[in-house]
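1st attempt posting a full record on here, be nice pls
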Amino acid sequence: MAHIGRRALLAGAAAVIAATTGGPALAGPRISGPLPGQGAGTPEFRGMWIATVSNVDWPSRSGLSAATQRRELIDLLDTAVRRRLNAVILQVRPAADALWPSPFEPWSQWLTGEQGVDPGWDPLGTAVAEAHARGLELHAWFNPYRVAHHTDLDRLVPEHPARQDGWTVAYGGRLYYNPGVPQVRRFVQEAMLDAVTRYRLDAVHWDDYFYPYPVEGEYFDDDAAYEEYGAGFASRAAWRRHNTDTLVREMSERLRALRPAVRFGISPFGIWRNSDRDPAGSKTRGLSAYDDLYADTRKWVGQGWIDYVVPQAYWHIGHPTADYAALVPWWAKTVAGTRVSLYVGEGLYRCAADSPTAAWRDPAELSKHVRFARGYPEVRGHVYFSAKQVSADPNGAMARVVADHYGSAVPPR
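the predicted structure (as tokens):
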């Protein structure tokens, strides 16, 4: 099958290099008309993530036929309906690639086993149509900065935009776009917004990966970018947070100008800051988005740059350093009085009969989470990681949630 042309990919990158502000008009048809699931008073959000990176959830392995890939995707959508969910969050740009025919980036290797090879069908287009046919919202999940699970630029397709000089940083055995380079920030926005112009998406969704998670003994070498763009900031940490803030704010502004009906949601690491570092933080003692990932997630809520937030509260009730019962009230207080909806990210993947943690061996643990969260009116729903566990449900935790809380019918959104 044909590779995406070098000319098409580099033309997209070149347009961004030429104009880091304002930018060219986005290619592709503009879609008008209402989208499902919008408006005040909508019922609770019940979602699941479908991760495609490393074939976590789908496809079950790379290199499957188009027909088999499609059948597996449909099975996951049917699973969402069977579990009485009303939304799926599908990862469509797992690593500077695409699960649609993008003019900016190559086809994802997780489809065919080889980056840049056309899988013979349009996964995102199919997902949107089939999800909506089942009454499900389709949120397109993009990872802004991850490029590869290796550090060798020569292993990328020859036309890959990441080959631009100075655009990437190798760190922890992986390759990342450099968030400190304005051209990079502009390019990744263009790449993601291309999908918005082409499909009836219900939302653009980002995960918790901005600057990478710390790796002991490793140095994220953004020295050149800091020297060029970091003047006037009190510290490199403040500059890095500014870079992340800028990406979020600009994407918010551009999305609302392009397709105001499409929501913008982010699923950050569950801890904003610990209270021992900041009195406004949560009573936790773990890694934090603000200090370790340079992501001021609370600011994005306060500024109204996002429409919903899904903190990954992947700890059990009573956890000694990051108690679910401490995090949910903190996030409820954070969104109170704002226009931002709060959905809680649930670590279904932790639920297993052989878990080393007693709480996760209990099939009722997640049901307790939902019950606890319903004590806070700011919590508008839950999202479960991930689809594989929603389907297999190894210790019955998902079935318990459905039986205890999700009634006999799926609420439309």
